[in-house]
Amino acid sequence: MIRRVPPAWLKANSTAAALALAAAVMLVPANLLPVLTTEASGHNRSDTIYSGAVELWRQGLWAIAIIVFTASIVIPVLKLAGLAWLLLSVRRGAPRDSRRLTRIYAVLDFIGRWSMLDIFLAAFLTGLVQFGEFSTVEPRSGIVAFAAAVVLTVFATQAFDPRVLWPIPEHPSPTAALS
Amino acid sequence: MARESRFGPDAALAFSITGLVFAVPAFLLPFVSAGKFGDERVSLLFTGVGALWDNGMHALSVLVFLCGTLLPLALFGAVTVLHAPERFKCQPANVVLLIRAARFLDHWAFPEVQVLAVLVALMKLGSAVNVTIGPGFWCYCAMAAFMLLAQRSLDFESLALPPSALGSAAAPSP
């Protein structure tokens, strides 16, 4: 076995790394800036992703708090960490545990979409809760940064080429030319 | 996606047509209505998209519209066009392009996430607002379920494509 990765695959993974890095940068304002402002009976309250999940927990809505926390904080971080691990594994040379890494890639590809939960949630609440002075919900800039982070992570996962996780045979098969 | 269907050869076609049928009432009928102090507000599927747009968050509004509405419809369309020839003995103009489109749309169509988001929002609103779920939401849930089934049933091998077409469709764009 030799390791001579086609340049197109390497280029794809450089793109994935750049997109993942951009997503990691966007996660900072996404978690620091408020995502929603709620006004109810004269009380104004701005929530970040984390404080929103904590508030749900305080209200006794534990299941929802866990869902929101997992979808909006755990999954984006897990996805970026997993992608970084895959990229580093490839950079170090031919990975030995190709099957396991490919499974990890499949999991990362699947879980990414669930980060969109907070974005749909903000859109739905903004549209529904508009009761003038009694109660209103408005989106804030944090949700835009979060959406950018989610979109960038999905693009990063799509850009990553999982074929680099597998050893390349010395004499490539005829079908390799097709790709 | 490239997996043999356990529901039979016409399953993907049947699920996508059913999903398209459910999409019409999901978009037109009331999604959720909420009331507070006698003020009743009826929300449609697009209400949130419009509210984000009105708040100046145009990119976010477009993203929600694409991932929750337009791309699921496009995926149903792509699956229907890909699988209809098996039944009606006709060949679509560009199968490879359609397969690439279906693979792309599969990554960006998230109706099931929107369903979960609405359920979370309803529980979050809970006691603060009187909420009534409308028929549009149930139709949207059905549409999301049929999209998952269509995705599970999408079988590229049964499309009788030449290996080169499948190979180039599977390869990422350079």
Topology of this protein?
The complex is a heterodimer of chains A (179) and B (174).
Chain A: H1 7-32, E1 36-40, E2 43-47, H2 49-58, H3 62-91, H4 98-111, H5 117-128, E3 135-139, H6 141-159
Antiparallel strand pairs in A: 1-2, 1-3
Helix pairs in contact in A: 1-3, 1-6, 2-3, 3-4, 3-6
Chain B: H1 11-28, E1 32-36, E2 39-43, H2 47-54, H3 58-88, H4 95-108, H5 111-125, E3 130-133, H6 135-153, H7 163-170
Helix pairs in contact in B: 1-3, 1-6, 2-3, 3-4, 3-6, 4-7
Summary?
By secondary structure, chain A is mostly helical.
Descriptive keywords:
heterodimer; A: 179 residues; B: 174 residues; mainly alpha; Butyryl-CoA Dehydrogenase, subunit A, domain 3; three-stranded antiparallel beta sheet; 7 helices; 3 strands; elongated
Structure notes:
The complex is a heterodimer of chains A (179) and B (174). Chain A is built from six helices and three strands. In chain A, strands 2-1-3 form a three-stranded antiparallel β-sheet. Chain A is elongated. With 179 residues, chain A is mostly helical. The longest helix of chain A has 30 residues. In chain A, 62% of the residues lie in helices and 8% in strands. In chain A, a hairpin with a 2-residue loop joins β1 and β2. Chain A has one domain. With 174 residues, chain B is mainly alpha-helical. Chain B has a single domain, classed as Butyryl-CoA Dehydrogenase, subunit A, domain 3. Helix content of chain B is 65%, strand content 8%. Chain B has a three-stranded antiparallel β-sheet. The longest helix of chain B is centred in the middle third of the chain and has 31 residues. The radius of gyration of chain B is 19 Å and the shape is elongated. Chain B starts with 10 loop residues before the first helix and ends with a helix. In chain B, 35% of the residues are buried. At the A-B interface, α1, α3, α5, β3 and α6 of A face β1, β2, α2, α3 and α5 of B.
